[in-house]
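Project standup — Tuesday

K.O.: blocked on the structure for the chain from last sprint. Re-posting the sequence here as requested.
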Amino acid sequence: MCGIAGIAGEVEQMEPLLNKMIKAQQHRGPDTVSFWISSFVDAQIGLAHNRLKITDLSDDSNQPFIDEETGLITLLDGNIFNYKELRNYLCHYYTFQTNSMIEVLSKAWHRWGKAMLNKINGNFVIAIYDQSARHIFIARDRIGIKPLYFSLQKGNFYFASEIKALFAAGVNRQMSSTRWAEYFVYSSHGMPYETFWDNIYQLPAGSSLLFNGFTLNICKWYELDKAIKEIEVPQDEKEFIERFQEITNDSIRNNIAADVPIGMNLSGSINSALLLGLIHKNAPYLPIKAFSYYNENKLSNEILWTTEMLSHTHYKHEQIKITSKIIRKEAYFIAKIQDEPFDELNTLAYTHLFRIAKNRGSTVLCDGTGLDETWGSYPIIKTNPYYGNKTPLCLKDEFIKLAKTPEYPKPFQNKIDNTKYKDLFYEKIPHILRLNDRISMAFSTELRKPFLDHRLIELFFITPEKIKIKPSTNKWIVHHNAKGLMPTSTRLIPKELINDTHQNRWFTNELKDWIDETVYNLRTGTVSHWVKGESLEKEWQRYKNGASYDPCRILKWINLHMILNQQTI
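H.V.: unblocked you, prediction finished:
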């Protein structure tokens, strides 16, 4: 929806620095750019905002919002779905000057303080500066849909929606050798607070921070394992299904609410079938555009099934062809905007989809992320060379030693539940959210994920195993609920991704020279102390000769090379 940024501390030329920060992430909100600065004898604070107009297109929703009644200065990136209900309550205690959700947040914080967070439903990063207390409070939503990065250097506190905005403010730019080592050895993208840059941190999902000019305190305000203990558990399977339907329908209505054109990313998966069915149920005549990509073969299962899905609706459908030329083009683009590595070709295809969607006028897109990581009954993979059980032979021993084996909390008795918890809060979903946020916002487009509603995730963890998993049916409850929404023919085909066959052919033919250049530069360039040059060359030659090798690892090398070319180390 937008980008936020701020600086607290004694800095020279606050206004020029803020301008650099909001310019660095202007793609997040090109419609309106504004800032607020206040100076004191012992401290200074500046707040900035990039606005992408999606709901309430008037200037009343411009930020930072200065609330004369409460003395609070407020920033918001995201959506508060129940802000109208909160406003109806708060209007008994406050005088509202606008109809904006940002003013509701200001009043809500003044009324309830931190307890406000448990009363709001949405995807958000909220930053509130209290002029009387002279402290800044920042909170991130329960699942971490919206991003927030920060750094504390020389006693000054910097925060922003993207890492590049911190660099623009003068925060030191230094790649973390430890984080990159763990990425190459264990395919780990780090703990929730970590980034690939030294002294730059991410505020974890469901966390808040308070900076008073001297100290920085971070704490959890939402913990899934504690939250589910407060939920009333349905009595039988029928009630669980009804609860699932109630939450998904409500989440869909929340996420398609906008004053700008809406679209959706459509694949051939059951997740997309359910998403499409729910959107069509709640908004059958909304002028929604659906976008799908395919890999050169327009008769692929993916395209055949998405076409079949859309044939039962009035929605328009655009099919986007992905080629090796597009892959290379988008790889360079991602290196400029991502701030962190990617390692899947589908990420590049997704990037191109957003580019096309924006060109066609869609400002908001929905996708089906989240159902696999919760309701999918996929097996726990114990052996996979890509996920850390096979260290690349081309890494130097000193570099490998920097990598620490990732350790994750296990708050549940059930092994599968602990795996799902790890995927949701430590591995898969945090990585997906970071990638997708940067990709979508690069085109000034907001990506919404209705199935990552915290209520739906909580429901999963209180649902008995016998309801979650049925014999021979993956994601049983998803299929069950899709029955009444989409024809049977649209619920049977598995999702088809850009597979290893496409990658191998592209890498060893059209993209071979590009990868040759990558390998040479890694052998001789800035991170030559990370890699064994001859071993890296041999790995690449074995791959070109047809030896078995994971193409995702090739993408890791490519992405590292491009990041090095874009960033000054």
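K.O.: great, moving the ticket to review. The chain has three domains: 2-222, 227-491, 500-566. The longest strand covers residues 72-80.
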